[in-house]
């Protein structure tokens, strides 16, 4: 069953053609990694999936809903599609526990006891149950990013989008966040679309690796073909060579 479908999608910023004729299908439960040079359209693509960016042409189907249709309820889409950004966007004036409980309380009207129980189980899952009563400023960047992931999971989404979730972290913080993401990827029911430069993560858990440049998908391969075989696109081969070398 398809979770996300792009059909001839075009996205413009004024005269700038940010996404060019995107055709892509992501099945439910797949982990798909998007890579490519800066400015290639990766973040724009991922932001269209939950309506943070609107497309100008084509069709984008997410969980059975057509995002190109202006009548589509975007709040309904976002209930089922969580997003984790480069920066954590936690509420600075609320405890870690409250950050996780807030959206399910307001949006889903979840029972308070059930909400707290789930929030604590998610904190335990990301290794931060002992930080529940702290404020975000008391945590490291890596810890805050793990909290942001737990907050997204609290909505029990069908899909999670990650937009370079480790790029703002100090190197020693990255592994803890990636380990949480790997744990989620092993959950066969969760669909993940991840923009990242972490090739080790892609090698380990991705079902597919998509290479983008100039707003286009130039390569869409299994991780085995992309990393251990040979991408058919010359630009993808050059990019991979630079990544592996450095």
From TrEMBL:
PROSITE patterns: ABC_TRANSPORTER_1 (PS00211), ABC_TRANSPORTER_2 (PS50893). InterPro entries: AAA+_ATPase, ABC_ATPase_HisP-typ, ABC_transporter-like_ATP-bd, ABC_transporter-like_CS, MetN_ABC_transporter-like, P-loop_NTPase. Residues 4-239 form the ABC transporter domain. Coiled coil: none annotated. It comes from the Bacteria. GO terms for molecular function: ABC-type amino acid transporter activity; ATP binding; ATP hydrolysis activity. Pfam families: ABC_tran. Keywords: ATP-binding, Nucleotide-binding, Transport. SMART domains: AAA. Belongs to the ABC transporter superfamily. This is ABC transporter domain-containing protein. It comes from Secundilactobacillus malefermentans.
């Amino acid at each position: 069953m398809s979770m996300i479908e792009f059909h001839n999608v075009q996205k413009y910023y004024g005269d700038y053609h940010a996404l060019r004729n995107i055709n892509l299908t992501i099945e439910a439960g797949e982990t798909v990694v998007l890579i490519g040079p800066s400015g290639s359209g990766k973040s724009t693509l991922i932001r269209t999936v939950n309506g943070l960016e609107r497309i100008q042409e084509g069709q984008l189907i997410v969980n059975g809903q057509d995002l190109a249709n202006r009548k589509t309820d975007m709040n309904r889409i976002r209930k089922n599609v969580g997003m984790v950004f480069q920066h954590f966007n936690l509420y600075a004036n609320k405890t870690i526990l409250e950050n996780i409980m807030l959206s399910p309380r307001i949006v889903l009207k979840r029972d308070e006891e059930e909400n707290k129980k789930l929030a604590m189980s998610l904190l335990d899952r990301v290794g931060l149950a002992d930080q529940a009563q702290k404020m975000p400023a008391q945590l490291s960047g890596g810890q805050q990013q793990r909290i942001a992931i737990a907050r997204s999971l609290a909505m029990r989404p069908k899909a999670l989008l990650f937009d370079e979730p480790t790029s703002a972290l100090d190197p020693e913080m990255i592994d803890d966040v990636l380990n949480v993401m790997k744990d989620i990827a092993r959950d066969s029911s969760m669909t993940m679309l991840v923009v990242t430069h972490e090739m080790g993560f892609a090698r380990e858990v991705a079902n597919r690796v998509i290479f983008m440049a100039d707003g286009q998908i130039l390569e869409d391969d299994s991780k085995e073909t992309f990393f251990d075989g040979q991408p058919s696109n010359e630009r993808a081969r050059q990019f991979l060579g630079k990544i592996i070398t450095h």
